[in-house]
Amino acid sequence: MKIVITVNTYYPLKDGVQLVTQYHAENLARKGHEVTVITPNYGNREQEFYKGVYIIRTDIVTKHAMYYGDKRAYQNLVLQETKKADAMVNVCTQNPMTDWLFPILDKIVCKKILYMHGMHEQRWNADMLKSAADVGHKIWNNGRWGWYYKTSGKYFRKYNHIVQLHRFDAAFLYFRKHYGMNCRVIENAAEDIFFERAKTEKREKHYAVCVANYIERKNQEFVLRSFYQAKLPESWRMIFIGSEKNHYYERLAGLNQKLADRHGKRDVEFLWGVDRADTIEYMKRADLSLMGSKWEAFPISIVESMAAAVPFITTDVGCVRYLPGGVVVSEASEMAYWLELLAKNSESRCMLGQAGFEYAKSNLSIQSKVNQLEHLLKSEE
Description:
This protein is of the alpha/beta class. The chain is built from 14 helices and 16 strands.
């Protein structure tokens, strides 16, 4: 089959959507399909053949939920690439790579699949009230995306299939309630290497890890405050791993100094630019995995911790409350409580980690998810 995929982030960028799209694209290519990915260039090469996938990068950018670039040229590119294609997969809503195609969906004659990774949530929380800028940003996004979903049902119905991440995903429930559409479900997955247990060894030091880009949405400050609030044995440390140093990284380091002055110095590391292989080892050898995100759909870091049998403590975002292998919290004090409890009880950590591992082993392998997508691409529906 010839398959065209459009996505707003792809290699060499790093985020959850990129990772999921990339393992689908590369594994479909390994199965013998001809796969083309169309994505914004973000300063990278315009065309590239990487791990069996042909990548075309276009000069399109998004700022404050608005799209900039040559819309007509992008539409013509997709029409050209899909002319002899068997299927097109548009990854995510609320981005130009999908939204700019709405007016021409009738002209794209191949099978069309919309592969979603959640949707904008209208609800407010305390983190959104910290500043006038945050409030204004939230009001703008609620208005922008509220209208978008109210008026886009006619386009969503033009797809042969819509894929959601979980049957309790907010987008799955919204599409069923407002559009009467029963979407397909393909959960996220972890690489095979996560399922290979790290060698057990007796250690004097234990650590919790937080793997996420250093950005406001990932909210590592929540995790850091929780770590300082928890009364932990001196043998415990906290490791943050992000892709690069930036303003949020510096802010986090500054907060760490303030917390150390107030509570006493703790063993905290902020890592960046770590090789993927090393990041995987950090996760597999961790005692706990922490996440403080303000918004997620089906977070890859939680999937990976489950596959590695590492128990997680996370904020209540996306579908994490429906995943075995950890606990969900709302406040930093709650995360601190569970940190204390699990740090002092290795049997509880083991039981939680094993529960997550068993679910991941049965449900969250990459090969099973790629097979699901391939089946959908080949189906006559």
